[in-house]
Each structure stands twice: as C-alpha cells, then as structure tokens.
C-alpha cells in the first residue's frame, strides 16, 4: 500500500497512520500503534516508512527491489502480558529482502523473501501476494491476499518457550515452520491538492505451528488502520537537473543538560549544555531541494541524508549515526531582503550504530528502554553570511544553530522500539548551497 501513495516519480511525502491490532499473545491488550510515514519514490531509491531500498531492475510493469525492513512484531517492554513474564523480550528485527513484482491492468502480484540481519530471530520468511485495484477519480480500493511461509527460527523466536522459561502454565514449546494467510482491503481518498486519507482492515490466520504455542491466543488476528499523508510531488525542482543546488551542512555540538528538552531549547527557556558527563557530536548532512517556493510562499522543502559521529568521551565506544529527513525552511521575514534569515524544521529517521550514551543514561534514570532506530527532528535558525558581510558570493552560505533530536514519539510507535524519551544535542553549523 505504501508503495502506491505517491503519484509521480521523484515524489516525497509525510504522514501518520494509527494502527489498531489484536495481539497474538494470550491475555494481551489490543495494540494501538502510531506509524510515522516517511515516503520517497525515486527512480532507483525508495523509502516507505519502515522499509528502504533500491530498484535494481525495472520495466514498465515489473521490477526487482532490494530492501531493508523493520519487522513490526513482538511486544512493548513496558506492556508485557502476564503469559510472557520472565521470558526473553521479543523485539522487532531488521530484515534484508528481495521483492519481484509485476502488474497487468488492475492486477498486481509480488513474491518476496526476507532474512533477519539483526541477529534477533535469524529467521526467514517467504511471501506471495495478489491485489486487485479499483480506481475512481479521487479514490482507490484494493483488496489483497497473501501467503507467508515462516521458518522454524522465526516462529520459535516470537512464539517458542525455552525449557528454562517453562512453568506449570507455560510448558516448553518449539514452534516449527508454517504457512500464514492474510486478507485485507485498503483504500485511499485524495482531497485538496496533495492530501490523501488512508484506511484499511485486515486479518491473519496463523499456521498451526504458531496457534499451538502456549503463548498464543488461537484466533484470527485482526487489525485496522487510519491516517493521512501529504504528497509534496516532485516540485518545481528536480534532483536530476544540473542546475539544482546541493546543500552541504557541517556541524558540531554537545548534549543538552538533563531536563533541557527540545521545546525549552527552541523557546530559549533552557539552553544549558551537559557539564557533568558531556558527549559531543560532529557530522555532515547533504541535501537536495524538492520544492522551492511551495504554493508561492517563502517556503522551501529540502531532503537531507548524512552521517553523524558520537564522541562519547570514554563513557562508551564512539559510534556513527545515519540521519535521513525532510526539512522545511521559512524565510519570509520583513528583514529578509537585507539579511536572509531561515527558520527550519526537519522530520525523519535516525539510526545509531550504538545507542548514544546520552540516551542510555537518560533512559536508565527513567527505567525506560532504548532503540537504535528513532524519530529524528532538526529545528534550526540561520542567517546568510553573505548578507552580513555584503558579499554576493557568500549569499548562500549560512551560519546557524540547531538541535539534533532523537525520540520515540512518546512510546507510541512500535517501529521506533516503543521508546518514550531520547536525546538533544545543541549544535552550531555552516551550510553552503553548491
């Protein structure tokens, strides 16, 4: 479904989905999950919220994709059902996959294979799916059916019971491989110029290898989702045009003091740095514009990707972080014709090679879990150095300050490890349009 939201090649979009789903575990409450939508469909690269990948072979109606996907299974550590008390945590995992798809008129088929690469379950899954699409002027309706073969490692990780975990009400169980069946119907309604409402319902009947587990409620698992997405389109600026500028930002910063959260920093009510056990960051982000002057307003949209290095000052090994985000810049201030001033706000994803020390400490004090993958926010303010010094050559060279913020959206997103909390780094930067 997420792969069909954007209308044009080179488009980007943002949105949110609320997903309500029954749990397969005995006695567990229904799961209400927030799924942030980060969407981009390029000629080769794509981003679909919890999946990112490349197309290595495409034709008019068929293609082959390689992707990395976060598996949305398991349970939140702070909402462990009674049947799972004392068991190892069932975390979500990262899968590497390949998908072959083909389309004919309203029909669509796909075959895919997924393998855990995060050393979580070390499991494998094969999927085969079919969908049929009805299209109206503003709406699409798509019923979908799929078969999912899961090997024993995958099923046993999520639904098995080790001998040392067994008790009177929870005997040891080794789940074997099995075939699941899923059916659903999804719809999209386009309104205004770029907005879409999204919805759907689905049901999964697990294999007997899963249903026979003492951890599992032997019933059909139901789910529903509802949300909205905004499609920026491919804009007035295309990445493949030689005259399109490339933004390069270099920055250096330090983590903020405990209790100095992002809103306080943005409103300048707290800008204290951490002096007790400080850690630093430095990095480079590279951006390309999607839209210049959105709807005729003094508002640009730029897509960024880059690396950040955590200097942990000996508290733990230093580590890398990868950030990808869409950032809006507003520059319509009364004085901007003399000194161009931009206020920016970025929204996207951040993956850390190792959970940063600032987050480890903060979450430990609050007895909360951590995650390598988190939501990324990047508010900033900057000015043109060229306007300050009267140099036209430096007009597109900006000096500014910003916040590198990682968080889990208040523990509401399974994709982000159901983390409630994160970190803030206050940084200074130079950015040039080349």
Please supply descriptive tags for the structure shown above.
mainly beta, 50% strand, 434 residues
How would you summarize this macromolecular structure in one to three sentences?
Helices cover 7% and strands 50% of the residues. By secondary structure, the protein is mainly beta.
Walk me through this protein's architecture.
- The chain has 434 residues and is mainly beta.
- Helix content is 7%, strand content 50%.
- The chain has 5 helices and 21 strands.
- The strands form 2 sheets. Strands 1-2-3-4-5-6-7-8-10-11-12-13 form a 12-stranded antiparallel beta barrel.
- It is globular, with a radius of gyration of 23 Å.
- The two termini are 37 Å apart.
- The mean pLDDT is 90.
Uncertain ranges: none
Radius of gyration from the alpha-carbon trace, in angstroms: 23 Å
Distance between the termini: 37 Å
Percent helix: under 10%
Spatial strand arrangement across the major sheet: 1-2-3-4-5-6-7-8-10-11-12-13
> What pattern of helices and strands is seen along the backbone?
EEEEEEEEEEHEEHEEHEEEEHEHEE
Strand content: over 45%
Compute the number of strand runs: 21
Number of helices: 5
The pLDDT mean sits at: 90
Estimate the global geometry from the Cα principal axes. Answer: globular
Q: Can you summarize the main beta sheet?
A: 12 strands, antiparallel, barrel
What structural class do helix, strand and pairing data support? mainly beta
Give the topology:
Blueprint: E1 11-21, E2 31-41, E3 45-48, E4 51-58, E5 62-70, E6 94-104, E7 107-116, E8 124-132, E9 134-135, E10 139-150, H1 152-159, E11 178-191, E12 195-205, H2 208-211, E13 221-233, E14 247-255, H3 262-266, E15 280-291, E16 299-311, E17 319-330, E18 341-352, H4 357-365, E19 373-384, H5 385-389, E20 397-407, E21 422-433
Antiparallel strand pairs: 1-2, 1-13, 2-3, 3-4, 4-5, 5-6, 6-7, 7-8, 8-10, 9-10, 10-11, 11-12, 12-13, 14-15, 14-21, 15-16, 16-17, 17-18, 18-19, 19-20, 20-21
